[in-house]
Amino acid sequence: MVARVFPLGRSAAGEQTGTVIATPHARPGTLVVVDDHARFREAVGERLAAAGWRIVGEAATGAAAIDLVARLAPDVVLLDVVLPDMDGFAVADRLAAAGSASAVVLTSGHERGDFAGRVRAAPVRGFLPKERISGPALATLLAGDQR
């Protein structure tokens, strides 16, 4: 098994302060978190950063997410289904129409079954319930098409 080591940071002396080991199934890269709850964005960002993801931006609305993704071109967009200005499906549609290459993963506090048909029809990689978001869960979803 091949593994890559991702340094989490360096001390003032240049020493590595921590590492995350990723298997071939885990492809941490850049990520934007979109959710209207700041505490959720912070918690999920911390959890995914600990798994090797580099959180490059956060947005609280669909409009802000579209702008942010256009500017930053992250590898992945973790996108809440319920936002104050438009739903996550509309955001995903607009990102796809704009030619975004970012993989979009929808999330919600509601169960997947509540959105199953819409998830399958949307230009997204899949859906993760909020309570299941983790580095391994995200890597597994991205490694296959788990709509």
Overview of the structural elements:
Helix 2 runs parallel beside helix 3 (88-97). The protein has helices at residues 38-50, 62-72, 88-97, 116-121, 135-143; strands at residues 4-10, 16-22, 30-34, 54-59, 76-80, 103-108, 126-129. The model is unreliable at 1-26 (pLDDT under 50). The protein is built from 5 helices and 7 strands. Strand 1 and strand 2 (16-22) form a beta hairpin. By secondary structure, it is α/β, with parallel strands linked by helices. It has one domain: Rossmann fold (3-Layer(aba) Sandwich). The strands form 2 sheets. Strands 4-3-5-6-7 form a 5-stranded parallel sheet, sandwiched between helices.
- Order of strands in the sheet with most strands: 4-3-5-6-7
- Kindly report the name of the CATH homologous superfamily: Response regulator
Name the CATH class: Alpha Beta
* Number of DSSP-assigned strands: 7
- The domain tally reads 1
CATH architecture: 3-Layer(aba) Sandwich
The coarse overall form would be globular
Query: Which H/E pattern describes the elements?
Result: EEEHEHEHEHEH
Mean model confidence by pLDDT: 84
